[in-house]
Amino acid sequence: MTPLTEGKYVIKFITRAKESNKSSLMGSYLAQQAIITKTADFMTITLHILDNEIVLGFQLEGSSDWEEAVEYRVDDVTNQRFELFDLHELTETINARIQYEYPEDGKILKTDEEFRIEFDQASLETI
Questions:
Q1: What is the pTM of this model?
Q2: Nearest to 52 by CA among 32, 27, 77
Q3: Cβ atoms of 98 and 26 closer than 8 Å
Q4: For range 99-122, the mean pLDDT
């Protein structure tokens, strides 16, 4: 991807299954754009989770393991969450992992699923 200068950016993305080009259902739990903040010392990405009660955990793949958000904020009124992650570099694809639970047929199902976030470089714009 294009190297970023200092500033704040918005970029659109889609979610794909871990090992195919099929859309991932995990996209229904995420706003389809991210905020990238770049300074001289660090770069972060903020992702918007649309259902705080269903999505119990969310990680991005780091250089050696799954990384948790370094900061998050929950909006109790809208039941949404914003998670901020350190970003070593902005690549076209970031592997992600989500833990969620949802009701189905009178039961609560829990799952842990990996998927890919694919960024649309053409949509990158300064905010």
A1: 0.93
A2: 77
A3: yes
A4: 94
